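INFO  loader      accepted 1 record
INFO  loader      residues=417
INFO  predictor   begin
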Amino acid sequence: MKMWIVRLALRRPYTIAVFCLLIAFGGLFSLKGMLVDIFPTIDIPVVGVIWNYPGLSAQDIERRVTTYSERAITTNVNGVSKIESTSVPGTGVIKVHFQPGTNIGTAIAQIGASVQTGLRIMPPGIQPPMVVQSNASSVPVAQITVKSDSVPEERLYDYGLNQIRLKLFTIPGLTSPAPYGGKVRQINVEVKPEMLVAKGLSPYDIVNALQVQNIILPGGSARIGTFEYNMSLNSSPEVIDELTRIPIRTVNSQVVTIGDVATVSDSFADQTNIVRIDGKRSTYLNILKKADASTLDVVNATKAAVPQIQESAPPGVSLKVDFDQSGFVTSAINHVLVEAVIASVLVSLMLLLFLGSWNNVIVVCTSIPLAILAAIIGLRLTGNTINIMTLGGLSLAIGMLVDDATVAVENIHRNRT
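INFO  predictor   done
INFO  writer      dumping tokens
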């Protein structure tokens, strides 16, 4: 029943030749436009909700933040399969698993609306959470180290956060979290409990004073003569001394300021991770790619951008792409190409040695690459990417192609002779 293909090829050789050329050009075109990645794209219907409230204990995070969020999500979000939550001091993480086929975009919008509504019953001052979608391919594709022998680690962190990341975000498909290592600058207000008790105040009074008086508001405009001037109301302190003079309340006809009941210092947040490069404290940035981006494109663009960023870096600061995954992808691609070449050469030599026909050699040398290019067209049409899974499948298929080509050519030669 399958002989009609052979008869068609014998009756219309030019048609088959044109068809093979179309496969070759179509395969090369598909290969050029396909995304190259380590792993295949896996859509996981999981959304994470991350709450941050520094200073709150794990028990309070669970009772006053996590539990309320779980109830709101269960009530207002459709397609929820199960909910997992973890509460640690200052942070609550909720994982929302959805039923297969759920529209994740709609689910994220519903989660955002439900948590915004729940802010009214949350502890005062809490910020809206981060809502992120889990992605199996969201792994670092490169790492950029930032080190210096003279610049302190807090400045390295600030430079990586506010300078390097902003310049890297111009690369299509790239994303990068905050740097690791370094110190984060922070204005600390350390309360003196005995002074608060003596003045009849509470820590909430200090928080309220900072929130109310540490603001910048528009003041409208003022017309003076023929000119109109924009006005602004700026009560945000610029130095530590101004912060200590912010009034809290009047007690016994005396104005109590923040400096009377607390110590204000320009310091750093508690350091939760330390990065050492060549024995010295430094920082590094993880480079991640978005789900619809190519690993090779992101890594190559990052490598090209680092020398440009280095030119404008502060004196003594050195940037380097210390790790990237492009080598694994390139190695896998080269492995498939080498296997295809070796298979074609060995089979061709074997056929030439035992059958003595150059025609058979040409058939084998063209059929194996054409079969691979046809498979690439199928991968492109089905939305797959070039990754270790598809490349591994092609590697296995090459072995079958060698067997099929050898058996087919040998049978043809035997029947003709």
